[in-house]
Amino acid sequence: MALRSLRAAGAAWLLLGSIAGSAFGQGDKVAPSGAAAHATDAAQIAELVAANRILADQGVLDAFGHVSVRSSQDPSRFLQARSGAPALVTAADIVEFDLDARPVDPGDKSVPLERFIHSEIYKARPDVKAIVHSHAPAVIPFGITAEKLRPVYHMGSFLGTGAPVFEIRDGAGSATDLLIRTPAIGAALAKTLGSASVVLLRGHGDAVVGTSLPEAVFRAIYTAQNADLEAAALRLGAVNFLTPEEAKAATATNAVALNKAWLMWKQQVAAKR
Ligand code: MN
């Protein structure tokens, strides 16, 4: 009996060890770019850590998905956590990348497979300062049906005339694992995004951009909420969407108002630590 419980305890310990070990460490091992790292902007890193925790707390990111921010030190660099669950991210996990998605000084950290979502959008869109990639369940139906994700209320106004849908089969064939694994697929995704704020990835998720980290987080959260509401409305009948003019006006208002939400979300995650 004693031996059996000892074995059980040992098995549990092994299991716990493997769970702890799997939180970080997947993804790609990539050699350093060879470029010099920039001086660390501790405040920006703290904001990025908060963004990871907020998006996990709000249910936009689960064990998967990621958020990045363009470096305050150099617009040709961005910061993103190493491969791992966003809810567990700390300042020590943040890695600096160049716009070819090469980590500058990764140490022994693995980096996310889908980092090309970020690098190629930053390359194509100088106005973009932060990006969220998620598999938020609410958006998935709008990537796999003819229904367009469009703004049904003022909080989703940044959806404008509707989110474009990226079809990976067009450039990469019908046998991929759906992931954005190469610069070429990332560039095609950025092209589909165009000047929009959100692009849906068919059968996968979405990518949301903002002119600041709080704006990208705000939009990622309200992309999922708008999708939930739009699906609910479609079940009731014909939907009365925002006009493009209403969408534009509400987006201008929200650009200021979103800081109220950002401060609240930061406090909420800080209180949980
Ligand atoms: Mn993904």
Describe this structure in words.
This protein is of the alpha+beta class. It has a single domain, classed as Class II aldolase/adducin N-terminal domain (L-fuculose-1-phosphate Aldolase, 3-Layer(aba) Sandwich), CATH 3.40.225. Helices cover 44% and strands 12% of the residues. It has eight helices and seven strands; from the N terminus they run ααβββαβαβααββαα. The protein has helices at 2-22, 42-57, 115-124, 140-144, 169-172, 183-193, 213-236, 244-272; strands at 66-70, 77-81, 94-98, 130-134, 165-166, 198-201, 205-210. A seven-stranded mixed sheet has the order 3-2-1-4-7-6-5, with helices on both faces. Helix 2 (42-57) packs across helix 8 and helix 3 (115-124) crosses helix 6. The chain is globular, with a radius of gyration of 20 Å. The protein starts with a helix and ends with a helix. The structure holds manganese (II) ion. Manganese (II) ion binds next to loops. Manganese (II) ion binds at residues 114, 133, 135, 179, 204-205.
